[in-house]
Amino acid sequence: MSTSRLQSDVDVLIFDFENANSTTREIQKRSKQLELINLEFKSKLDEIEQTVLYDASQRDNRNKATEIFRLTHELDKT
Predict the structure, then answer these.
(1) Which domain of life is it from (predicted)?
(2) Residue 33: which residues within 8 A CB-CB, separation 6 or more?
């Protein structure tokens, strides 16, 4: 193989390597952006879960208070 052919192959490999590095940097940048978006969504999900749990506990408390009121009223009638 001639020196010019080897140099041409090396140049192609260097070009491919630089392109791969550039692509890797872009993927890493996008990955960091997606991680931040994911953290934001997790935070929102936690907030929604807390709201749902709070609403459910409030509904449960109202139901129990209604039941206590009903039982107290029945007890007073006896």
Answers:
(1) Eukaryota
(2) none
